């Protein structure tokens, strides 16, 4: 595998960066007033304005040439057609098959993948309908009013984020809670106040071997059986989502109440697989399919649009631009939508578990920086917390602003503007302030005392993307998730890494289990004495406990 950093395209970008680095966004806009109109892309319901980036048309040309050099076009096809692009696990990464519309076919290695996907979706929709209508009851004949999803990582973050995002569409009087952490406070807090007769547990785990999930599921089972007084209650109150039927049966969940997915769906790409079951129960099968249609719209755009007009390609290339040519370490994601409060956390797994790699797919060390650190909070809250650093700090923090034209609903308020307009005025103002700032002359001209002027200077030149959509709906949410899935893919392709494995999370899991005997008794850890610092901490823990 050739090293992308040795390509002429990479060198051209490095040389170009040296020119752009000295230019301010004020200047770029003054020199090219048409850029605001030109540097936009619309894909389905999503509209991206990338004019406030430290790029010119030439930059975009050089970046798309880099994408060509990295073979992005062929890689996209390889992903969509089910090639085993997850090389370290010898698997396809075929999450795009999860949103193939009914009637379309996709056969991979002789397997009717589209048929399998729709069979599971139909089974989920049927089950959801029965729970929502009250046809499916608990053990004592009462209807289900609360669904508790037990899962972690990709088996939690996707449905938890989407349930929060689409809470306004939960129309069957069924609410969801999400338990993930092995900290007992999580499950105890989530079980608190629940009526066992009306609670359904969805145990979600791709492997069905994850410590946190199995432990929480055992606690939940015991809680239920103790209260309903009969082991037989489990089959009415527990269903499973997994790829591992054997382990599901071992746990005691009726395989008839299991919803499957496949090893070609990565955990962090599984919201639109059966892992979305809790969400589907809350919002219904139809709304879930609208979400899939939103995913699909972006899939098609990604697969067919020319790179210079391709939203995920441009956003991925801009990520590479700042990471590798400006030395940026992080990307802030700032949704101006309270209901997207879990979106940054969801993106953290999607992006950082995917692209936090220091070897390439062929095992050679990477030479460039990889893996942006994603973080964020909804605006306007973030404005009153960490935006100070974004505006006047010494670091470059590119940011994605996400907003919607319409709220789901809004109350009447006395004043010149409604709450949603106030929210969005803030979003637009922030991107403008970040880009253009305020010069010392402008501040002095306002009569500011000289000694205060340097404190009030807003340097500007801080790059942002703005993503605008009509309304936060199941469809737009699907599109947003697909957009970032493909951004990750574009970056991973440029860096030459396998974005679909996650070996780095394994060692800590093994070491934790090795340490358990030392925490619970005076026995030495199974894997031998740990390092001196850890051994001392364990001793101290035992003294305190
Ligand atoms: O530990 C990381 C991880 O494997 C994630 O990739 C995954 O989403 C999560 O754990 C949960 O795994 P599972 O769905 O198999 O329980």
TrEMBL record:
GO terms for biological process: gluconeogenesis; glucose 6-phosphate metabolic process; glycolytic process. It holds the Pfam family PGI. Gene3D superfamilies: 1.10.1390.10, Glucose-6-phosphate isomerase like protein, domain 1. It is found in: Cytoplasm. Pathway: Carbohydrate degradation; glycolysis; D-glyceraldehyde 3-phosphate and glycerone phosphate from D-glucose: step 2/4; Carbohydrate biosynthesis; gluconeogenesis. SUPFAM superfamilies: SIS domain. GO terms for molecular function: carbohydrate derivative binding; glucose-6-phosphate isomerase activity; monosaccharide binding. InterPro entries: G6P_Isomerase, G6P_Isomerase_C, Phosphoglucose_isomerase_CS, SIS_dom_sf, SIS_PGI_1, SIS_PGI_2. GO terms for cellular component: cytosol. It catalyses: alpha-D-glucose 6-phosphate = beta-D-fructose 6-phosphate. Keywords: Cytoplasm, Gluconeogenesis, Glycolysis, Isomerase. CDD domains: SIS_PGI_1 (cd05015), SIS_PGI_2 (cd05016). Its main location: cytoplasm. Its EC number is 5.3.1.9. It comes from the Bacteria. The active site is at 353 (proton donor), 384, 509. Catalyzes the reversible isomerization of glucose-6-phosphate to fructose-6-phosphate. HAMAP family: G6P_isomerase. Belongs to the GPI family. This is Glucose-6-phosphate isomerase. It comes from Actinomadura hallensis.
């Amino acid at each position: 595998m050739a090293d992308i950093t040795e390509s002429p395209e990479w060198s051209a970008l490095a040389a170009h960066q040296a020119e752009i680095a000295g230019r301010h966004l004020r200047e770029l806009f003054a020199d090219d007033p048409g850029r605001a109109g030109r540097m936009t892309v619309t894909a389905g319901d999503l509209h991206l304005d990338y004019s406030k980036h430290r790029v010119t048309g030439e930059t975009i040309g050089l970046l798309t040439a880099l994408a060509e050099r990295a073979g992005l076009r062929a890689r996209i096809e390889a992903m969509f057609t089910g090639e085993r692009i997850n090389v370290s696990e010898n698997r396809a990464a075929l999450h795009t098959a999860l949103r193939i519309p009914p009637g379309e076919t996709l056969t991979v290695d002789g397997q009717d993948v589209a048929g399998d996907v729709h069979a599971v979706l139909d089974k989920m929709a049927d089950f959801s309908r029965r729970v929502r209508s009250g046809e499916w009851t608990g053990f004592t004949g009462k209807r289900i009013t609360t669904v508790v999803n037990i899962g972690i990582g990709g088996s939690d973050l996707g449905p938890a984020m989407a349930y929060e995002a689409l809470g306004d569409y939960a129309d069957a009087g069924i609410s969801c809670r999400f338990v993930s952490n092995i900290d007992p406070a999580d499950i105890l807090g989530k079980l608190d106040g629940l009526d066992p007769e009306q609670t359904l547990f969805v145990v979600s785990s791709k492997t069905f071997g994850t410590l946190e999930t199995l432990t929480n599921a055992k606690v939940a089972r015991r809680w239920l059986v103790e209260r309903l007084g009969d082991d037989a209650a489990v089959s009415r109150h527990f269903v499973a989502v997994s790829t591992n039927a054997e382990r599901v049966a071992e746990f005691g969940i009726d395989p008839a109440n299991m919803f499957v997915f496949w090893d070609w769906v990565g955990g962090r790409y599984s919201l639109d697989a059966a892992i979305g079951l809790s969400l589907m129960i809350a919002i219904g099968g139809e709304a879930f399919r609208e979400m899939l249609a939103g995913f699909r719209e972006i899939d098609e755009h990604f697969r067919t649009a020319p790179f210079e007009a391709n939203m995920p390609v441009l956003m991925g290339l801009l990520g590479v631009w700042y990471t590798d040519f400006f030395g940026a370490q992080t990307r802030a994601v700032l949704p101006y939508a309270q209901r997207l409060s879990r979106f940054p956390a969801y993106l953290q797994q999607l992006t950082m578990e995917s692209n936090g790699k220091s070897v390439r797919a062929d095992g050679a060390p990477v030479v460039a920086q990889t893996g942006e650190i994603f973080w964020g909070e909804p605006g306007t809250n973030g404005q009153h917390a960490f935006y100070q650093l974004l505006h006047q700090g010494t670091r470059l923090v590119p940011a994605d602003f996400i907003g919607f034209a319409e709220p789901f609903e809004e109350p009447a308020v006395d004043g010149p503007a409604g709450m949603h307009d106030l929210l969005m005025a803030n979003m637009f103002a922030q991107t403008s302030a970040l880009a253009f700032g305020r010069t010392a002359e402008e501040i002095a001209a306002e009569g500011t005392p000289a000694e205060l002027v340097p404190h009030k200077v807003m340097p500007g030149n801080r790059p942002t993307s703005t993503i605008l959509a009509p309304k936060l709906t199941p469809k737009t949410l699907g599109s947003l998730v697909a957009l970032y899935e493909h951004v990750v893919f574009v970056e991973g392709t440029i860096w030459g890494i396998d974005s679909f494995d996650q070996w780095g999370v394994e060692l800590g899991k093994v070491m934790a289990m090795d340490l358990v005997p030392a925490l619970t008794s005076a026995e030495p850890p199974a894997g031998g004495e740990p390092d001196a610092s850890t051994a001392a901490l364990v001793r101290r823990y035992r003294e305190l406990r």
